[in-house]
TrEMBL record:
Principal subcellular localisation of the protein: membrane
Protein's UniProt name: Peroxisomal biogenesis factor 11
Any Pfam family: PEX11
Family matches, as InterPro entries: PEX11 (IPR008733)
Keywords: Membrane, Peroxisome, Peroxisome biogenesis
GO terms under cellular component: peroxisomal membrane
GO biological process: peroxisome fission
PANTHER family documented for this protein: PEROXIN 11, PEROXISOMAL BIOGENESIS FACTOR 11
Subcellular location: Peroxisome membrane
Organism placement in taxonomy: Eukaryota, Fungi, Dikarya, Ascomycota, Pezizomycotina
Length: 236
């Protein structure tokens, strides 16, 4: 009876739908990866033994490699998204080109990231110098893509403010649109927080910030948790 209750519980069904998606599994692994990155730093600073830190280091490295393998071929998805954005006649020029450029940067990042993964696993041979170049250029493209996303969200927030200023809040239609604007603004604020946290990771990897491993791990965990929650809601 207890087994049946657990088997047919709505949460179990929702969980199975969530893990059935590649995005769901990736978000879960990413959340654990960056949590482990933060905990490795934290335990080291607190003077814990190497044996205590080792499991977290292993999670950080192995989950990162697993995610790279799961992302192989995902660059095509972003290339298609860039093409769709450019073909969208309903978008104004600025958001259209920012969206397309973001997707192209992500496609380039994932292409180089896959190449680096293949080199790291000895499937494809690259010299150490070439490997370092691939990793650095991948970080640059990732950073550029996130920056485009930040600018895109900032532009949409400005447009929402303009729309809100024209509303007649005294009538029912104005109130309805006002509620819609508030919902859209909340989503954009969440996206800005997610992208802002993600921006820290490649920016630090490229030496553009002086953040330590703890802050990078915490930022990555926050953005991963937001992404995980969003994917969880999509699979309801």
């Amino acid at each position: 009876m207890v087994a049946d209750t657990l088997t047919y519980h709505p949460f179990v069904s929702h969980y199975l739908r969530f893990v059935a998606t590649t995005v769901g599994r990736d978000k879960a692994l990413r959340t654990l990866q960056y949590l482990a990155r933060f905990l490795s730093w934290y335990l080291l600073r607190k003077g814990y033994t190497a044996a205590s830190i080792a499991p977290w280091d292993a999670i950080k490295k192995n989950f990162g490699s697993t995610r790279k393998a799961m992302r192989i071929g995902k660059n095509v998805e972003h290339l298609k998204a860039a093409s769709v954005a450019l073909d969208d006649k309903t978008l104004a020029p600025i958001p259209k080109y920012l969206a397309a450029l973001r997707q192209l940067c992500y496609a380039g990042y994932l292409t180089l990231d896959t190449l680096g993964f293949l080199a790291g696993t000895k499937i494809y041979t690259l010299t150490p110098t070439r490997t370092a170049w691939v990793q650095k250029e991948a970080q640059k493209l990732w950073l550029a893509g996130i920056t485009c996303s930040l600018l895109h969200s900032a532009y949409k927030l400005q447009q929402l403010s303009s729309r809100e200023g024209l509303l007649k809040k005294t009538d029912a239609e104005g109130k309805l649109e006002g509620d819609q604007i508030r919902k859209e603004r909340q989503k954009l604020h969440t996206q800005l927080l997610l992208d802002g946290c993600d921006w820290v990771i490649p920016a630090t990897g490229l030496g553009l910030t002086g953040f330590d491993e703890g802050l990078v791990g915490a930022a990555g965990f926050v953005s991963s948790w937001i992404g995980l929650r969003q994917q969880w809601e999509k699979t309801q």
